[in-house]
Model the fold of this input.
Amino acid sequence: MTIALMSHDRKKELMVQFCTAYSAIFAKHTLCATHATGGLVQEATGQKVHLFLPGGQGGAQQIGARIAYNEIDMVLLFADPQVETTDVDLHYIIQLCDEHNVPCATNVATAEMLLLGLDRGDLDWRTGLKSTSTPFIL
Done:
């Protein structure tokens, strides 16, 4: 399965710690991420992460397009609740996940539930949703 990683600036270290703690599960899957988040995860875990543009420079739209084309199976988007401005990219990604039935976590507690469920096989139903079109290749 393909897992997209995104995080606000103040949550990047938490994302790195989370990915390090669950690196054995992540190693079984394809990872993609916005540039800064993915670079930090890749450096800390040694796992290959396909890097998109930085979130605010089009990376969120790149991930959103992959969600719309059913090429991403899960999104872990660690949001900072202290961000006072409306984060258009955050709402965009969550809306797309809701629209296309892609599991999405915006905090570490939900991310852990999704990841452990993924490892148990609880999300195998996602493989039946894959389109017959050419898949996104990382």
Q: What stands out?
A: The chain has a mean pLDDT of 90. Helices lie at 12-21, 23-26, 35-45, 59-68, 88-99, 108-120. The radius of gyration is 14 Å. The beta strands are 2-7, 30-33, 49-51, 74-78, 104-105.
